[in-house]
Amino acid sequence: FVQPAKMGKHGKNQTAGAVYSYHERMKDKRENKYGKWKERLGKDSTKEIDCCCLTLQPVVDGVVTPDGYLYEREAILENLLHQKKQYIRQLAEYKKQVEQEQNDDLHDQAADHAAKIEAFRKAERGITAQSSDHFEQQGTVRSHVSEMMDDAKRQQFKHKTAKGDHTVNHAAFWVPQVAPEAAKTKLVKPDKRCRCPMTNRPLKVKDLITARFVEADPSSTQALIVRDERYMCPVTRTVFKGNVEAAVLRPTGRVVTMECVKQIVLPEMKDPISGEVLTEKDIIPLKLKSSGFAGSHQTLAATMSTPMQTST
């Protein structure tokens, strides 16, 4: 039998210290699940360079935007069609709101005109409108509550409506007419332009460029998603895997590595296979996946806010 080593007093009782250390704070944070959580994202949390930005699956019929974002053709067309349908629906609601505002203005003008006519008729007949006080009881002894009600009635209250602040005279704030209204949010005219899901910039179907990938092993019967090596550069035979950078040549749609672009394409400004003349705008670098680790030179992280701990 080996007698265990004795722990000191401070080791048994961590509350002996006068300072709430960082280690203790993080321990309480994990156990009680409060505060803001932050975690770096690695390879398993990001997409590969040959995957669609919407479906996160390897592309079969891929297209590239002028900014270098890769999409599956079916996915991006469906997204743009959804934006068109949403615009039509929002435009119909906006037109309905404008028509309702015009009708309200006409109704208010008609009511003001009718009020002026009625006031003119009363003036002609020598009749003046007298306001009656429902809280005043003549011939009776007035109580303290009655006097408070009269004071509350003489106060002016403002309540917000769809057309702005409106001043009214009411007995007190609990009167239904003074209660705040849940007015509908005023709509703005929707933008008819479709936008890229990643950059939120205007995007048209004619701006999409076909990306022609070359399979690394055309004879393989496995699905693309389970292959370790899916596509490769047709010039250098380098597999698009890991942090390999790639670019699309606009005229032909070929996907080549950036190493091929620097060593072969840029010196002659021609397509290495077809020999077609290229310009700088014809070379579109594909957006590489991000990571939260230092090797990627990026700071990709996920954050989640939870209830904070407050001191009493």
Task: Offer a concise description of the structure.
With 312 residues, this protein is of the alpha+beta class.
Mean pLDDT: 79
Q: Give the overall silhouette.
A: flat
Element string (H = helix, E = strand): HHEEEHHEEEEEEEHEE
For the secondary structure, the number of strands is 12
Key features?
single chain, 312 residues, alpha+beta, three-stranded antiparallel sheet, 12 strands, 14% strand
What this model shows, in words?
With 312 residues, the protein is α+β, with helices and mostly antiparallel strands. It is 29% helix and 14% strand. It is built from 5 helices and 12 strands. The strands form 5 sheets. It has a 3-stranded antiparallel beta sheet. The longest helix has 53 residues.
